[in-house]
Amino acid sequence: MEIRVAGAGDVDQLAGLLGRFAQPEQPADAESAFAADLLSWWEAHQASHVPFLAALPSGAAAGMARLAIAARVPRPGGQGRLCGDVQSVYVVPEHRSAGIGAALIDAVVRHADALGAEHVTVHANQRARSLYEEAGFAVSHDLLVRTRGGR
């Protein structure tokens, strides 16, 4: 298996994975229409979102993850401050429990570290929480979250 930063040529595979992630029962023909939308979105957000793809030796996609990068307000002596957020980590069900999710998270975190991100956040579901904790994530009592609607 190979974990790599995805390129424009991977949009169809990423669209398929995002479709399965968001709507597991989605019809296959919906993926091609979504791929065009995803490519357009990607072109507009290349500087702020880095996609990763887990590819099997056959070339088939087994999983994905995304690092969202945000610039932070500079401080004296601290230009170029960044933070990151792990998003859309997904491994296809038939390849789960094989270390792919952990490898994707590791790749995202290493990339964020290489960029100099001060911190990386993630909104994890209960099932994946231990995976993130093993990667060095911890609950922070300083981070507050407000969802749409404020409740």
Detailed description of the structure:
The structure is a single chain. Helices cover 34% and strands 23% of the residues. It has four helices and five strands; from the N terminus they run βααβββαβα. The chain has a five-stranded mixed beta sheet with strand order 1-2-3-4-5, with helices on both faces.
Descriptive labels:
single chain; 151 residues; 5-stranded mixed beta sheet; 4 helices; 5 strands
Write the topology of this structure:
Layout: E1 2-5, H1 11-22, H2 29-45, E2 49-55, E3 61-71, E4 82-91, H3 100-115, E5 120-122, H4 129-134
Parallel strand pairs: 4-5
Antiparallel strand pairs: 1-2, 2-3, 3-4
Order the strands across the largest sheet as they lie in space: 1-2-3-4-5
Q: What structural category characterises the helix and strand content?
A: alpha+beta
How much β-strand is present in the residues? 15-25%
Cα gyration radius (Å): 16 Å
Round the mean pLDDT to the nearest integer and report it: 89
| Sequence stretches where pLDDT stays below 50 over 5 or more residues | none
E-strand count? 5
* Tally of DSSP helical segments: 4
Note the gap between the termini. 42 Å
